[in-house]
Amino acid sequence: MEDQSPSTIKENIYLSRYAFPGSLLNKEPHKGLELVITIPCYNEPDPIRSLNSLLMCNTQNLCIEVILLINEAENAPSHISLQNEKSYQEVKRWAEKHSRPDFYFHVIYKNDLPKKHAGVGLARKIAMDEAVRRLESVGRPDGVIICYDADSTCDPNYIQAVHDYFYCNSKSPGCSIYFEHPLEGSFDDNIYDAIIDYELFLRYYVNALRYSGFPYAYETIGSSMAVRSSAYQKQGGMNRRKAGEDFYFLHKIIPLGNFGEVNNTRVIPSPRISDRVPFGTGKAVNDWQKTRHLSTYAIQTFKDLKCFIDSLPELYNASSDFIETFLSNQPESIRSFLVDNDFICHTERINNNAASINTFIKHFYQWFDGFKVLKYVHYARDNFYPNQSIGQVASELLTLTKSTSPINNKKDILLAYRKMDRQVHY
Known about the structure:
alpha/beta, Spore Coat Polysaccharide Biosynthesis Protein SpsA, Chain A, 48% helix, Glycosyltransferase family 2 protein, Nucleotide-diphossugar_trans
């Protein structure tokens, strides 16, 4: 389909060099626009359910736009195109009926995306770049861009809670938003058993990193995140990955500092089976059906990581001999990984450019970032500590952190993690 006529906007470096080319909306935004919700939509049978959930939100005294981007590759199968066209027409009629000047719903259909790049990353990028254009055109470079999904729902205070977070945290570049998958409903029981394992895995990994002392331990869920337009532009915008786009994107935002969480509302992702992306909720549920269990990283991996992180300040202004001694005293999994990744060379480089211990720590985590930590976790899994049952390690971590007494039922373990995550401000 042809793009719509571009709006007149004040050009900036990000939009002229890095954004998806061309404006997709010709309707001028409300001058009070401060928040844009972006939603990629691919082969979704009922995106209106998601939109209705947003419509039910409390938005008093707020000015919001929603951009639903229906997308497909230029070589998409005919059944995908038929579903997308059907969704486009339905959402278009729905938006015409329910849009207001201060809460406007846009629907865009891009059916010509290059097959090499088409996917959720590019779809999020197109919608978020359009949000940047809308916010820039009304002079709000610090306006908020929310990422949501076309099969998610939310609590009625969702929009207000995200708005209030950014209003009260003026220096924050972004946040992760609390989520809960449904644990009961119209799907078969085994779907919900799979969801319990999958959500437990997500929460276990972040809490295990927090136990280790890693400072960038946040959930990175595409349907449950928000960012300031200025931070989005500063870090180069969304990537075009076909999966994992959320993890890679947020781990460019989190190191900016003052990243936070919104835990007083909920995004509710769908638990349905899906093969749309190589991993994520739908893929995890689909895979679980084949094995009926989920295994994940051993707790010893994070105990070793904690040992390393706890002793990290000792490396400030350290000599080469001391760094070698330091390395020899680390757990074997950490020592082996660091040797393979030129640890001594990088530590010396960081020390040469650090005038204080705080600067050293900050620069060290620019090297030993979320990507590097995940590589270590995989390295430890492959070479030292094989995966274990999610229920076993998740229960062990709760006991280790004295969060609760031992629990054996995985649903109860998940509920304990949820309670902990809603109360903790990391």
